[in-house]
Amino acid sequence: MTEAGQIVTLERVGAIGVLTVNNPPVNALSHGVRSGLKAGLDAAGADQAISGLVLICAGRTFVAGADITEFGKPMKEPGLAAIIETIENSSKPVIAAIHGTALGGGLELALACHYRVAVPDARCGLPEVKLGILPGAGGTQRLPRVVGLALALDMITSGDPIGAKQARETGLVDEVIAGDLKTGAIAFAEKVVRVREMSDKLKVPDPDFFKNYKSTLAKRRRGLEAPQACVDAVEAAATLPFDQGLKRERELFTRLLGGEQSKAQRYFFFAEREANKIPDVPGDTAVKTIRKAAVIGAGTMGGGIAMNFANVGIPVTVVEATQAALDRGLGVVRRNYEISASRGGMAAEDIDKRMALIKGTTDYGAIADTDLVIEAVFEDMALKKEIFAKLDGIAKPDAVLATNTSTLDVNAIAAATKRPESVIGLHFFSPANVMRLLEIVRGAKTSKPVVASSMALAKTIRKVPVLVGVCDGFVGNRMLAQRGREAERLLIEGALPHQVDKVLTDFGFPMGPFAMGDLAGLDVGWRVRQARGTKAPIADALYEAGRLGQKTSAGYYHYEPGSRAPLPDPDVERIIIEVSKQLGVARKPIPEAEILERLVYPMINEGAKILEERMALRASDIDVIWVYGYGWPIYRGGPMHYADSIGLKKIAERLSEYADRFNEPALKPAALLQQLAREGRGFADWQASAKAA
Ligand SMILES: NC(=O)c1ccc[n+]([C@@H]2O[C@H](COP(=O)([O-])OP(=O)(O)OC[C@H]3O[C@@H](n4cnc5c(N)ncnc54)[C@H](O)[C@@H]3O)[C@@H](O)[C@H]2O)c1
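# nicotinamide-adenine-dinucleotide complex -> structure
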């Protein structure tokens, strides 16, 4: 009935019409798909010989969502709403046949169908909230009617999909088809004969149900507008007639789409994908599959790093200097798994399975057959050089040799081997089994296959990789150091730790610099300053007073026994006031807006310097680092996106002023920042023109 090569085809099998969407790779709802569906539905509707319709997709998945390349462009008719209307008005039953993932607009399309069948490993979800929007084609109105309010709210506000089994149990799917999907769906269509009314499971359990749901959500998804709006939309489903509910959904959708948060979240969606591309390392570069890994050192980082491999079934050998250190390190790993199992994060029987994949030893010979070695011993150049020289003599010729150093020169470490092309930095963040970011530090001599293999490995162990260059602190910590210096200056001038931290938690960070310092331990920074011969009068004074942070129940804050809640401490205030006095500073209150500028603008400035020096490939890569590694609120896109939203002219002006006021050369606006400010441009624009060139 239709010609070959079309995106949507209609064929007839007995009395059943089969509409097949074929728009690789994920059958996104592009304009071509929408027009094809509309035409196919109209043709099937007019065909007397057709009594029911199956809507199915070719390739690897059912419609997996909107076409992201159409984002931000005006919608060309027919829109999804027109197709949904055609299906709902059809006098012939329409059955969605789902395999792969029915996501976003794909699931909204399936929800409009009168019935849904799915293969056992199919998944259904509405991930729009992750882009700062909500399902805008009836998803918030139809899903709760089909599966009930509680599950619909969870799915829509989390964006996470459910599997076919749960979909069957909750009524989202009418039948799970174990055999061939098309055959099964046609058989189902022959059986059902007629359309059915939408189900209605909209019972509101108690009058405060939506209010309570929103307040829980406000804590869990702090600062985000979209999850709250999702609840409003579902509430409309429960309290308004269907048509008015749809209208309300549309209003909320339009408001979110035009807002700054969704703009930032959609920007970030692309930033994350872009970070995988390395211009001079093409996609077809030979990649080494890591079948067996080794980690040197079972301390804080080594243990966490080893867990990443065990979690995905890759055997990992952990080498320690002494049996005692090994036992302690692997003991911590086991305890972490036990805690995770007790909280329902994994099955209890998996603890032993994962531990069995982690082999502890004090014999370096045990790494001879591994494809990758990650060194995570003390931050000491002489020690790291000694270890890399040793690895050079033992590791397979084609093994990747990685260091987890946070501050040391990866090129100098590589030079301790006869194969610097095999050496790379894999900078994990603490806790290494939890934090998603992986800075991949490319040395001067690191080979392209080693870069490509490291990027691929990151995906395997479910990390978010960003390629960076060798410089002090790489990208993330280098910018963090700017914030740290200015945070200390704020204390000296008149602010208190909780006032500074509050500004950043209000901004959307999970914690401020001082609470973070207490968590990491104030001895960490003190040791770095000792090694570098630098000073931070307040941080030093706290260290000297034996205040090391949470581990001593006292740091910038006071901690009650067994609690991690930071409480302002009069002793700290006294220490701070004393330091200000010694330095001859007359303390005065600092407005919150100024605190924010003085913490964030220096980071942006450092980001600009990082770009000038080409230590990051793109401004958006810096944003990926800050969102995944440091808790920058995703709805503000990252520091460089945020800078663009403020305007670089203002940022450059303020930095100049602060540089003069504090006589601080590091605060002088970077050349790139000045140039873009002069030209009235932003980092995104600069990045786009660099890409085009
Ligand atoms: N802690 C963090 O937040 C963090 C974050 C990123 C990177 N790093 C980096 O990771 C590395 C390790 O840091 P950490 O916090 O895990 O330190 P740690 O002190 O907790 O652990 C280091 C471990 O290395 C072991 N070790 C020492 N010499 C060894 C040798 N010759 N052979 C085998 N094992 C040896 C020690 O026994 C100890 O268990 C450092 O380079 C650090 O800069 C740390």
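# post-check
The chain has 29 helices and 17 strands.
The mean pLDDT is 96.
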